[in-house]
Amino acid sequence: MIGGQGRNRTTDTRIFSPLLYQLSYLAGPSAAHLLRTPINCAPGGRNAEGRSNYTGNPQSSQGTPVVVAGRFADNDALHERDPMNDRLRVWLHYYIAQLLSVLRLYDRAIGEFKAALESDRNFAAAWRCMGFLHAQRGREAAAAQAFQEALRVRPDDDVTRFNLGFIHHQQKRYAEAIAEFERVLKTAPTNDRAWYGLGLCREQQGEMNKAVEALKEAARLQYFNPHAGYHLALAYHKLGEHEKAQAEYERVKSFDPKFAEQIRRETGGA
Length: 270
Hints:
Elements: H1 19-23, H2 29-36, E1 66-68, E2 71-73, H3 75-78, H4 83-102, H5 106-119, H6 124-136, H7 140-153, H8 158-170, H9 174-187, H10 192-204, H11 208-221, H12 226-238, H13 242-253, H14 257-267
Antiparallel strand pairs: 1-2
């Protein structure tokens, strides 16, 4: 998760998989060789140079039927790409990218996600994970583009949508960010991070009353998020509601005294 998730939040890239343990053995040269070499379990087919792998009677290439896995097929059919093998290659790129992400080799991971997407432009999970990595690298435009591609395929993905909202917030595109957060909240009204992001945008736009309502909901849903309490106290202070600001300061102080001290400094004692 990027943007204002609170100290009790962790980066949610959804990249853990038990297959990482198995695929870790493919992270060296053997994996690169596997990904470069076309996978074809049937006789015939073509190799990396586009030449036929068929080593039988040359007359068979003239249209003579050959038996493949218990069925008859023209030799030309053996030269066609196997969709199942292509899909395997996509997933190999994806899981190797996940492994590289765990190892914090982010740019190499992005390269593997791109390789997966070259074969399947509708692989929403790869777009989403690549967006997270771009965001972690501070590449906001690239992150936004990746999140938008993921949402093109999976418009109901709230995780991607509120992260796109946070990217728009960082880009100071507050109206677009608000639209994304509000869309999330229509289907997930208990999403505290979406309420928090909505409150930040309202605060930036000077809509303090709306900011207070959103931040109150974020603080209610995630009580121990000091960031929501901090911005809520500031919003109360700007509205001249100093008693409420003081109450919010005391609430945050009960579980995060250091963060509460920042509230006190910025509000002049709330």
